[in-house]
Amino acid sequence: MGVRIAAALMLASIASTQAIAQAPANEEAKAEQRWSELQRAIFPDRTLNNGQGIIELEAPARALDAALVPLSVTTSGTKPVRKIYLVIDNNPGPLAGRFTFGEAADPSILKVRMRVNTYTNIHAVAEDAEGQLYSVQEFVKASGGCSAPAGSNDPKALEEMGQMRFKLLSNVTLGQPVQAQLMIRHPNFNGMQMDQVTRLYTPAHFIKTIDITYAGQSVMQVESDIALSTDPVITFGFVPRQNDTLKVVVSDSKGNRFERSFDVAAAEQVSEAM
Amino acid sequence: MRTVPAVSRRQALFGGLCLCCVSALARSATDERRLLETEEIATGIHIRRGVHETASADNDDAIANVGFVIGRECVAVTDAGGSLKDGERLREHIRSITPLPVRYVLMSHVHPDHIFGAGAFLADKPTFVGHAALPNALAQRGEYYRDRLEEIIGKGSAGPIVEPTMLVAQRAQLDLGQRVLELRAHPIAHTDNDLSAFDVQTKTLFASDLLFVQRVPSLDGSLKGWLNELKVLASMGAARAVPGHGPASVDFASASAKLHTYLNALLRETRQAIAAGKDIDAAPDMVALSEREKWTLFDEYHGHNVIQAFKELEWE
Fold first, then answer.
1. Most exposed residue of A156, A232, B19, B177, measured as fewest CB within 10 angstroms of its CB?
2. For position B248, which CATH number holds?
3. pLDDT beyond 60 at A29
4. pLDDT digits (tens, 9 = 90+) for B239-282
């Protein structure tokens, strides 16, 4: 048996959620109130429109690993999306990430891995060129993702902190959008995990910004928070207009700065066959 | 050797007075029995087989194989159980079989189903033996595990977090009186703190969770490390092995071959998924599904194993 007492406890927490299921109106009202408070805090004096047909959020109904919940956001292109906000309503730091797309971006696809602390609604909000906001939501069952004890990968994440990998997920045709994956070694301690020796909480040490440019043009600026998982992996799109390098600059909450450049023509490309 | 708990006089009385309770009583007696029955798998080695269930209030987290080895001078407990009650039951059982003192309690690794019984043996003042990395793992996860376990089996039921008092960094021996247990601290495999034991006299290997039989394995360390340690265990010449989950005693080679097949499928197909650019959340639905019919609780744990394997292998 394993950390998988977590699985057992999820089964157990199904029992306790049955009480919730019996009073759905109350829970829904609470969730709605939470979201309206968050809206006021994150988007003061702005209106959120229904995002259906503009932005789509995919999240697992039940997380296999609450410390690593994959979220996938796609935008249809019916509105030119400039920013995406990810809000995990019931997390200690609800605004999990803000993604600002630049002139070399293809905002149609964005995938990240987040820590989710408890059963929660997750909102993906798109902002278009005029500053209009469009929102969609998904409900995710997960528990303990933020306070969950560190995994066995963490010593390696600290040791190799700042290492990065870059892969292309589709063929490069100049002037056409291409999908890519960026992996960053970083423990992303969120300040809620117990230190192994001192038995005090490990001080928060997490990635604050990720700045991706191609040929000097902005692809995406990420402002992240404690919800980003250990060793984050981000899938995104960009439009290479000439053969050049993709540059990534990562800064974290301790003032570390990690910079890597990848020659796109020479980048590893994964095969589609399987 | 099998022991059945006697129905107390009071229970019998209630049963006699109220027929409606009889079936409930009968069920609880069966429950008690299934959580207690031990088998003497080799001279002086008694193993209680854990049930193939997730932890629940009905099973007191008695889901792992636990037991004890009797030497000429003392007893060593080879994992104490999954909760205080599970440990107390094991301790009572030891007392019914031998008057020798319990001098050692092995803690094979940090997982709750193997260590929370240790609290039941504090009164015996034994040496609690663990891997050198166990204190770290306990500090990181002990309270988390206890809280989660108590959500399932009831507040105050898990038992205390017992710290090991003897640490094994590589190898060590325990002398039980004309009976030696050889201990081995393994590099990262099932977890990063796996400790195995080998009874020299009967060539019995206490593999704990480095060996899963029937119940789907759970990966919480390193997939590549685990495959490596299976080779190390195979070289020990065991006449029989006690897996962490499954029958009380198995032939190591054949049991290990099945585990190897599972782990190897996990390794090969996770690598394929990564090479094909699959997302981590898509991998559980495509990796090692040929193993599904071979293991109980596959759907509960396999997906998590794939995620663990993916995280390890995507950085290759």
1. B19
2. 3.60.15.10
3. yes
4. 999 999 999 999 999 999 999 999 999 999 999 999 998 999 99
With CB atoms and an 8 Å threshold, state whether A4 touches B140.
Answer: no
Other C-beta atoms within 10 Å of B229: how many? 22
CB of B43 within 8 A of CB of B94? no
Q: Do A8 and B143 touch (CB under 8 A)?
A: no
B-contacting residues in A 88-117 (Cβ below 8 Å): 111, 113
d(CA A107, CA A109): 6
Residue among B48, B5, B51 nearest B25 (CA):
B5
Classified by CATH at the fold level, domain A50-269 comes out as: Immunoglobulin-like (2.60.40)
If 0-12 CB within 10 Å is exposed, 13-18 middle and 19+ buried, where does residue A223 land?
Answer: middle
- Complex ipTM value: 0.79
Number of A–B residue contacts, CB under 8 Å: 141
Contact A224, A217 (CB under 8 A): no
Question: Which of A223-227, B28-32, B118-122 has the least mean pLDDT?
Answer: B28-32
Is B267 a domain residue?
no
> How deeply is B141 buried, as exposed, middle or buried, from its count of CB atoms within 10 A (0-12, 13-18, 19+)?
buried
Please give the Cα distance from B87 to B159 (Å, whole number).
9
Residue B138 and residue B122 share a domain: yes
| Residue B21 domain boundaries | 1-34
Q: Report the number of distinct structural domains present in chain B.
A: 2
Task: Determine contact, residues A197/B139, Cβ cutoff 8 Å.
Answer: yes
User: Looking at the predicted structure, is the pLDDT value of residue A24 above 70?
Assistant: no
